Amino acid sequence: MFNASHPIIDIVTDRTTHAIHEPPGAILVGVFMQFFFQGIIVIEAAQYYEVCYEDSWGRNLFVAFVTLLSLAQTAFEGYIAWKANVDSRPLLKIPRAWFALFLNGFISGTNKLFLLRRCWRVTKGSWWIPVLFAFTITTYVANILIAVAFSRLGVVNPKPSDVVLSVVAFSYWTTAVLVLDVIFSVILAFFLWKNKTGMHHLDRALLRFCAVATESAVWPSLCVAVSAGLFFSHNADANRLVFVFLLQTGKLYTLSILRTLNAKVRLRERMKSDDFARGSIGNWSWRQADSGMDNVFVTVSELRFGVRICV
């Protein structure tokens, strides 16, 4: 299919050829996963809007935006599955199939910008946040290059340079996404850890919030790592499963945003409850209370401030 003449080009050509010849069954499995995650995303979005009355209109619009993007991705994946399984078209012969890759990368990049905004507020505008912003923008560029290269592979005699471009862009995108995930998670976790109060109920709620945020970030990162591992595998059957995992990352990133926002709302509601406040100071003696009540309100206020600017 490809005109390759260099050993390295031969290797990447084999990997790319196997990946773009994704079997119809794998495409169908991928779209079933898309619909499954989409259902969870709709539920999470509905739960958010039930209790989001204190959030800003901008955040409400953002949740609506990422949910609509996810719905569009699911609809387009359904279209590709229909063309592949009903019309029996190979992936490269499906019109505008490259848009699936572009939309998935765009959703992932949107998640990065959301996390970058958190880090900007957490670090109070640190000078190195613009560096991370520039790094994030390069993932958008790499995503566009992947989509362009993929669209060019469907011609009769694709150029080896297009194959190399797709592999280089894909390698950079996966690496950059994983690095950014680690950096953002470390920044946010470190900041929340610094806001420990020393009070059991407050710290336990904060730890729960950190656990949800970290767990939500792990799954999309793991999906990116698996797709990269499948692509660079020497097994041809493994190469053909790259898109099954790669195209789930957009869904998982959207789900991570919604889960974190919902966890924040639940934490905020718990901090306001009377039972939570009583449990936080119930073990104090009256003498301690006389001398330390101001500290209680200070620590609670600081924690509320930290959670608010973090999300």
Q: Radius of gyration, rounded?
A: 23 Å
* Count of distinct strands: 0
Q: Specify the number of helices.
A: 12
**Poorly predicted parts:** 274-309
- Compute the average pLDDT: 78
Structural features, described:
Helix 4 packs parallel to helix 6. It is globular and about 65 Å long. The protein is mainly alpha-helical.
Task: Provide a brief overview of the structure.
This protein is mostly helical.
Write the layout of secondary structure elements.
Blueprint: H1 7-20, H2 24-50, H3 57-85, H4 98-122, H5 129-152, H6 160-194, H7 200-231, H8 236-239, H9 242-246, H10 249-272, H11 274-281, H12 286-310
What key attributes describe this structure?
311 residues; mainly alpha; disordered C terminus
